[in-house]
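for ur thesis appendix - NADH dehydrogenase [ubiquinone] 1 beta subcomplex subunit 10. copy paste whatever u need, i formatted it the way the template wanted (i think)
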Amino acid sequence: MPEDRDWEAYKVPPTRTPVSERTTSVPNPVNYFQTAFSYVFDAPVTFVRELIERLQTKDKFYYYHQKFRRVPDLSECLEGDYLCYYEAEAQWRRDRMVDQQIVEIVQERLAACKQREGPNQFQNCAKEMELLAQVTKAFQDRYGDLGYHGNARTCLMKQKHRMMEERKAAQ
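the 3d part is after this line
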């Protein structure tokens, strides 16, 4: 490469980009449309959103899962106290759902152990099998034979009949 460069062939770019001059005095309609859209649609929505955000930041409430207080059992409700009946029924349904989830979790653990251990599953997964047997027996004792439309009252009657049978068998 020669030492003396031809500066006309390789010009240095300008340091500032020039601002284009408008050639017409007619206003651009896009600017009017953008301004109208901003004032008609965007500004009210933004205002309401900021208002809601300001109100919500005052009361920060982190909601992970709903916690219910324990209510009296159906056997502890007074006669004719329908609100207590309703709360006991709702509590029983929640307890049944929790027990169902416990059984499902234990089943998933047993299935994972069987998958992991392969041919040695009977030796290495004995604790999980025993735990599943205990959990399903407890679930069956409490909720078995109630059917889909079972409720707290029929469950309580089942428990009472089972206790009476155990007493007779003990005598």
